[in-house]
Structure formats: structure tokens, C-alpha cells
Write a structure and sequence with these properties.
The protein is α+β, with helices and mostly antiparallel strands. It has one domain: Histidine kinase-like ATPase, C-terminal domain (Heat Shock Protein 90, 2-Layer Sandwich), CATH 3.30.565. The chain is built from four helices and five strands, in the order H-H-E-H-E-E-H-E-E. The chain has helices spanning 2-21, 23-41, 61-82, 115-126, and strands spanning 47-53, 86-93, 96-103, 130-134, 142-149. Helix 2 (23-41) packs parallel to helix 3 (61-82). The radius of gyration is 15 Å and the shape is globular. This is Histidine kinase. It is an enzyme of class 2 (transferase).
């Protein structure tokens, strides 16, 4: 419960920062990510959330394009393959831009290969970052993590 409250407080702080000093870039990136979620899950019963921590205003346009593509591919995969009831996209901006997409679906087979996942790995590598996809810590669903240093 306390962790949930801390998450809410952090989201409020991020929103206030975006409103006061946030420039249009941060607002547009948040809207772009919200649009991706709505576009892929709007007609489904799947519960979704987007959590943003840190100043999106420091994410440049090229990196914002990567972020949108990563979220689009991850959400699309979860919708098509996981059977999940819940999907969470968490974006953290600190020294790195880190995107973590989790679902409570069936998980991902060890032998899965797809051009979309390979593309996410390539995007991370090109930007000097990392990409992992694993089961959630509790062994259910999937946890995709894409992280790159801010330029």
C-alpha cells in the first residue's frame, strides 16, 4: 500500500513538473504513449496503466521516437499473445530512459524469436542500452525492460 502511494506521489510530482517546466516535448511524449496504449487496448477488457517518473522534458525527439516504438511493439505483443488481464507501462527518466512493460499473461516461451523483439534489441544496442525480456519475478506473465542512457 505504501509503495502504491509513493508511486502516486511520484506521478503527481512528475505531472506538476511537466506542467510548470515541462515544455511541449514531455507533454507530447506522454500523450504519444497514452495514445499507443489506447490504440491497442481501447476495445479490450484489459486493465492498463502508464506510470511516468522523472522529467520527460529531457528526452530528445529521437529518443522519444524510440520510446514510442518500444511501447508500441511491447503492447502489441502483449495484446496479441499473452492473454493478460493487466498491462503496465512504466517509464523512468533519470540517468537513463528506462521502459518496463509488464503483463500478467501466459508468459513468453524460451524459444520465441520475432522480428519485433529483435528490433527492440537493435534499438537498445544502437542507443548504447540494454533490452531484456523475462518472466515477472513471481514467475507469471512477462516483464520487458528497455533502457538507454540519456544523450
Amino acid at each position: 500500500m505504501i509503495d502504491d502511494l509513493q508511486d502516486v506521489v511520484q506521478e503527481i510530482r512528475t505531472s506538476i513538473f511537466d506542467l510548470h517546466g515541462g515544455g511541449n516535448q514531455s507533454t507530447r511524449l506522454r500523450q504519444r504513449l497514452e495514445h499507443v496504449l489506447k490504440q491497442h487496448t481501447g476495445d479490450l477488457a484489459m486493465r492498463t496503466s502508464l506510470r511516468v517518473s522523472g522529467p520527460l522534458s529531457v528526452v530528445d525527439a529521437a529518443l522519444a521516437d524510440h520510446a514510442e516504438a518500444v511501447v508500441r511493439e511491447a503492447v502489441s505483443n502483449a495484446v496479441r499473445h499473452s492473454g493478460a488481464e493487466t498491462l503496465t507501462v512504466a517509464v523512468d527518466v533519470a540517468d537513463d530512459l528506462t521502459i518496463v512493460v509488464t503483463d500478467d499473461g501466459c508468459g513468453i516461451p524460451d524459444d520465441v524469436t520475432s522480428s519485433g523483439l529483435n528490433n527492440l534489441a537493435s534499438r537498445a544496442e544502437q542507443a548504447g542500452g540494454t533490452f531484456t525480456i523475462l518472466p515477472n519475478p513471481d514467475g507469471t506473465g512477462t516483464r520487458l525492460r528497455w533502457s538507454v542512457p540519456l544523450r
